[in-house]
Amino acid sequence: AKERGKNNYQMFTPAMQAKTNLRMEMERALRQALERDEFVVHYQAKVETVSGRVVGMEALARWQSPGKGLVMPGQFIPVAEESGLITAIGKVILRQACRQASRWQTMTGRDLRLAVNVSAKQLYQPEFVETVETILRETGLAPGLLELEVTESVVMHQDTAANRTLLELAALGVSLAIDDFGTGYSSLYYLKHFPIDTLKIDRGFVRDIGRDANDAAIVGAIVSLGHSLGLSVVAEGVETAEQLAYLRALGCDLCQGYYFSEPAPAEQFAELLPWP
Ligand code: C2E
Ligand code: CA
Ligand code: CA
Ligand code: CA
Question: Can you tell me the mean pLDDT for 176-194?
Answer without folding.
Answer: 83
